Amino acid sequence: MEQVTVEFQGKQVTATLNQGETLSGEVLGRAEPPMWYLTIAGTALTKLPASPSDSEAEVQRRCSPG
Prior knowledge:
Layout: E1 3-8, E2 11-18, E3 35-40, E4 43-49, H1 56-63
Antiparallel strand pairs: 1-2, 2-3, 3-4
C-alpha cells in the first residue's frame, strides 16, 4: 500500500493505493484493478483508478478539485 496526503479546505485527505489487498494486507478473493481510495479521518469519500505511472504529485493533482 502507498499513501499520499492532500490538504483540501483545511482538511487532510488521504489517498491509499489498493493493489488487490485490504488495508491490513490481506489478499482480496476477487480481482480488483488498482484504485486510489480517498478518505478523511478514516471516512471513505470516493475512489479513483490508479496507474502504474502515478507519482505523488500526480495523485495530489487528481485528488484536488479545480
